[in-house]
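Researcher: Structure prediction, please.
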Amino acid sequence: MLTKELLGDFSKFEKKIFALNDFLYKNPELGYEEVKSHKEITKLISNNISSAKIKKVSEMPTAFTGLINKKGGNQKTISICIEYDALPGVGQACGHNIISSIGIGAFYLLSKKIDKLSDAIQIVGCPAEEILPLSFPNGGGGGKIKLLEKEVFKDNKAVLMIHPATRNEVDPLMVAVKQIDVEFIGKAAHASGSPYIGKNALDAQVLAYNSISALRQQLLPTEKVHGIITNGGESANIIPDYTRSSWMMRAQKTSGLKVLEKKILNCFKSAASATGCKVNFIEGNGTYENLVTDGKLAEIFMDYSKELGIDMKTNKHFDQSKNGSTDFGNISKKFPSLHAFLAIVPDDGSVVNHQPEFAHATITNEAKIAIRNGSVLLASTILKLQD
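Model: Predicted structure follows.
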């Protein structure tokens, strides 16, 4: 049985993979700043997969590609995406260390099956999946959008990855998201002596925030809007003449997101009109498209999940109002794709992604089991795709 054979191969490499997973947990880095992560990951690949050709990606210092079994001609490529950026304050609370560990594990397993490969296999180091406020010098996310623009996935036959989660799900309905930062420009004045001279940019942000809160009652369960005020003024005795906030808008599909965006922008425009402030919209690094899962890839993945004793479900079994977003969705609109979930915590609401507790869960025994199984599932699915 293929999965049993791959599990045997993985056992020879697992200590190094688990050590990498721990390193990424202990050394969290924000998007486009994953210098230590990039170095450790590429070193592990180079030292253990001698045939892998590691290449840099122009103008993206923390991105890379690694290629095995490249023979030229009309040969197709299958890519494995990995992520390794962390979240501010809570570190690897989305489990990107596990994503890297699984992807590298699968890449290693496939390197041991070169004689079974007709396609070239590419591992793609994808920085900055998390969307950070644009007030950050490295804000905006969209690493895979940039990689697509640089044609890193050109002529791909399929693109795959696995994300840790609270459930085992082969085809999650990851929703579309767009980021904007919003600036209000008002007029400063003494807050007690001459407040009537000022134009309060903080009032504008608060009005917009409350307008969006009121709008939420009329949104679909799959539509989400969430934001923070990143600059609320300088001193309580000065009417704020400048404020800034960072927002994300989500909808089930990209088409619905455009409709939602218009409603949200109207909240900001109305607040500007009410306070006499000017409003300025700053867009992020592109819209994250909704995820589309390839049926053939999902079927193969499900079959091998059964071999490993994993109760893999489809999206029909879950509440799809609780999904997040990913720039892998942009890839899935262009190439046959799979972005499956593997559970590392129970699906009971006690621990969820983006909590410190989830970050800790990425280095537990359950996480090691997910890394082992995930590596085998990706490798076996890719081997099944060979001509």
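Model: The chain has two domains: 2-174+291-384, 176-283.
Researcher: Thanks, that helps.
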